[in-house]
Amino acid sequence: MSDEKSRFVVSADWLQGELGKPDLRVLDASFYLPAQKRDADAEYAAGHIPGAIRFDQDKIADHSTNLPHTIPSPDQFAAEVGKLGISENDRIVVYDGIGMFASPRVWWLFRVMGAKNVFVLDGGLDGWKAEGRPLETATPAYPAATFKTNYDEARVVTLERMRDIVSSGALQIADARSAGRFAATEPEPRAGMRSGHMPGARSLPSGSFATQGRFKSLPELKQTIEDAGIDLSKPVVTSCGSGITAAIITLALESLGHSDNKLYDGSWSEWGSRDDTPVVTGPADPIKV
Fold first, then answer.
1. Three-state SS sequence of the chain
2. Which of 96, 125, 91, 133 is nearest to 110 (CA)?
3. In this predicted structure, what is the pLDDT of residue 65?
4. Nearest-angstrom CA–CA distance, 103 and 97
5. What is the pLDDT of residues 234-262, one digit of tens each?
6. Nearest CA-CA partner of 106 in 136, 84, 139, 138
7. What is the mean pLDDT of residues 275-287?
8. Which of 35, 48, 64, 280 has the greatest CB tally within 10 Å of its CB?
């Protein structure tokens, strides 16, 4: 099988060779669920990739909602990342601790806001450390920059749009939560949420796209998506627990040249917490052939 990799994913070898270049910005976008028992801020302070900026997905978010890490307005995003010294023309490499867990969300976020040269580090910080690559504890400071947004609103799905999609069956729905949460055989990690999935959704657990934090090859990604019943010739909306791991599916789709995709930002944190949204349980419906 071909080992051809995503054009949006960079290797540790490549990144190490680029460190220090003036147009490069490396972002530590680590984020963990309580069950993972890891502290992203503490790990950043203890040692990060040289020059890496801490990108906190809960801080650079819309705080007017009670939903977690909701996409900020373009103006808020531009102001926040400008203070960090990031412009839309920089080469931006995003990583997280595990690799291919939280970093694709920030990759997606920057692209939705208009940045063109955005990449994800294969293997994450865990892989970087395992290979004995350099770390630093100092917090870098870059001159303030201007980030000119070009917000692609069509790529972000709201609750009302998601209601239409579910009721009409107009788009394929790819759910990145675990198979157990999808089928309602495992409880949701957040209190007060119903279990199950949206009618018509397909189960594509986020963990099936990488091995030890390394993104699968293009043929493997294609097989994973098609085996779940997703037709790559048709539009897709991605969803997950809170809008983070849905972007792993988005990264896989874009890597395969599938550009007609959107992400449901509220995801199950929104859909599953309401009593006026349809929910079904059990595995996905049989794939039609």
1. CCCCCCCCEECHHHHHHHCCCCCEEEEECCCCCHHHCCCHHHHHHHCECCCCEECCCCCCCCCCCCCCCCCCCHHHHHHHHHHCCCCCCCEEEEECCCCCCCHHHHHHHHHHCCCCCEEEECCHHHHHHHCCCCCECCCCCCCCCCCCCCCCHHHEECHHHHHHHHHHCCCEEEECCCHHHHHCCCCCCCCCCCCCECCCCEECCHHHHEECCEECCHHHHHHHHHHCCCCCCCCEEEECCCCCCHHHHHHHHHHCCCCCEEEECCHHHHHCCCCCCCCECCCCCCCCC
2. 91
3. 81
4. 9
5. 999 999 999 999 999 999 999 999 999 99
6. 84
7. 89
8. 48
Q: Which residue has the higher pLDDT, 112 or 2?
A: 112
210-239 pLDDT per residue, tens = 999 999 999 999 999 999 999 999 999 999
By percentage, how much of the chain surpasses pLDDT 70? Answer: 99
240 is catalytic: yes
Identify the pLDDT of residue 141.
Answer: 93
Output the six-digit token pair for 173.
Answer: 């729905």
Question: Residues 90, 113: contact at Cβ < 8 Å?
Answer: no
Q: Please tell me the pTM assigned to this model.
A: 0.95
Indicate which residue of 26, 183, 240, 246 is catalytic.
240
What's the length of the chain? 289
Structure tokens, 41: 């801020």
Cα first-last separation, the chain: 25
Beta 214-215 vs 210-211: how paired, if at all?
antiparallel
